Amino acid sequence: MDLGPLGVWWSGTWRSAGDPDADVAAELERAGYGALWSSGGFEPGLAPRFARLLASTTTAVVASGIASIWATPADELARAAAELEAAAPGRFLLGIGASHELIVEGYRRPYAHMVAYLDALDAADPPVPADRRILAALGPKMLALAGERSAGAHPYFVPVEHTARARDILGHGPLLAPEVTVVLEEEAGRARQLARTFTTGYLALPNYAQNLRSLGFSEEDLAGGGSDRLVDAVVAWGSLERVAARVRDHHEAGADHVCIQVVTDAEGFPLESYRRLAEALAS
């Protein structure tokens, strides 16, 4: 499954307030994005938006980023993935993850639960082939499992240093597709203010905080929505050229595919920002 070098990660509405008549998914495909990632949410099954995104496109991969393994039994998720596969052969990538203790009742032994879930996907009728699934992975054990039992890894909320570490653990071959958050704002104070509307919530989740600690960030860095050092490492902000350079840094560190998530203070999908980024990254 070829995702291309660039994708879009988005969890909100796929409707542009600035261009309400635009078919956002089709526009993104035409702009050159090879994959459209959308949150799996915490409701059972796969949300109807995945079918809508597939119906609006002809070549782009559509990926769940990420469906929680606690929300839906594996056999049910496999049937839902098979329906999308039948509708758009070869274009749906099932992204699954172990989520977070703070938001999952009964959360325990996430690695063991993931192994059992993958076993169940293998045994389902029909199964989800390893090359049609990808794992949310941050730590060494989950990254290694992603390389062994799926197409690869989809790290989220990570700096370039994590991409390099993940590639070392995965080795050559498995897909490495990190999410990169972007703020297209050149004034430092305003850019970091916008970035912290994003980082604050994620820093409250132990999995992300511990991953950043393992990369050398201190408790002071993790406090208050993140120090300037942490925000600058996790969020690519600034001019189009500066943001494009950060995306290229992830590719040079070992990413096969980078899915970009634009953070703004506006309502709706920031389609024009994605158009501009596609042009900057193509040059």
H and E order? EHEHEEHEHEHEHEEHHHHEHEH
Estimated radius of gyration: 18 Å
Low-pLDDT runs = none
Number of DSSP-assigned strands? 11
Q: Count of helical segments?
A: 12
CATH architecture: Alpha-Beta Barrel
User: What is the molecular shape?
Assistant: globular
The proportion of strand residues reads 5-15%
Q: For this entry, what is the oligomeric state of its chains? A: single chain
Q: What's the main sheet like? A: 9 strands, parallel
Number of separate domains: 1
CATH topology: TIM Barrel
State the fourth-level CATH superfamily.
Luciferase-like domain
Structural class: alpha/beta
Through-space gap between termini: 25 Å
Please give a structural write-up.
By secondary structure, this protein is an alpha/beta fold. It has one domain: Alpha-Beta Barrel (TIM Barrel), CATH 3.20.20.30. It is 45% helix and 14% strand. It has twelve helices and eleven strands. Strands 1, 2, 3, 4, 5, 6, 9, 10 and 11 form a nine-stranded parallel beta sheet that branches. Strands 7-8 form a two-stranded parallel ribbon. The mean pLDDT is 96.
